[in-house]
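agent: user wants the structure for Beta-lactamase domain-containing protein from Streptomyces iranensis. delegating to structure tool.
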Amino acid sequence: MTAKTANKVHVLSCGAMSCDLTWLLLKAGRTMRTRTEHQRPPEWYSCTTHCVLVETPEGTLLWDTSCPRDWETRWAPTGLQEYFPYDQVSDEEYLDARLGQLGVQPQDIDYLVLSHLHFDHAGNIGMFTGTGARLVCHEKEKEFAFGFEGAFNGAHLKTDYAACDFDTVSGDTEILPGVTLIEAPGHTPGTMSMKVDLPETGAMLFTSDAVYMGDSYGPPATPAAIVNDLNAWYASVEKIRGIAERSDATVVFGHDAEQLRSMRLAPDGFYA
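agent: tool returned. relaying tokens verbatim.
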């Protein structure tokens, strides 16, 4: 029996936020300094953001939606714009522009899958209102994101997603041929990663924020300031590592600037 695979993967680089690296990496010798280095300024990092467009025989899937054009005013009630300014982005790098460069309109998306509902992943869900796209997140992510009082909780901002009707999944779920959503909580209660099997490239495993960077992945795994459940996070990293080793997957981290720059990026390149 022939294994089911997707047809093509487009990695859409959507610019970068700037942030203190400590938010992403709690690593001795880099973000945690020795006494001889205590006066050295903190390292600010180019926190890249990307989306993934997956073409399959049974439909087109978009993984995450990056940050919105109106980020400064939308994030103002939370103060996040001061800690994560989306200030390393050109007009051609916003999600709507990136899709347009591929000749893709919002109505062409059959499945919009959110790895989780933080402000830098769910910021452009509104582009797909009324398009017929099936919105998907993890059931525990939906429960948390809609369950707290007030307009925001940390990096969950209800104005991004409150008007949306999500279908939910739990466990590891094959959602389309060659596309498996992987339950990977810890960063948030319902964070997911995504494994895509391709006929030529083989497996690609997009971690989202289950693993921020190569430095996070290790081994040993190195956590971050933004982790909802540290025990779950460690378990998810090792789960991802096991899946990657068994499938010989290319692991693509959630916010690794150096790795993203080394990849085949849309609209000029893709993976098949």
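agent: one observation worth passing along. The two ends are 20 Å apart (CA to CA).
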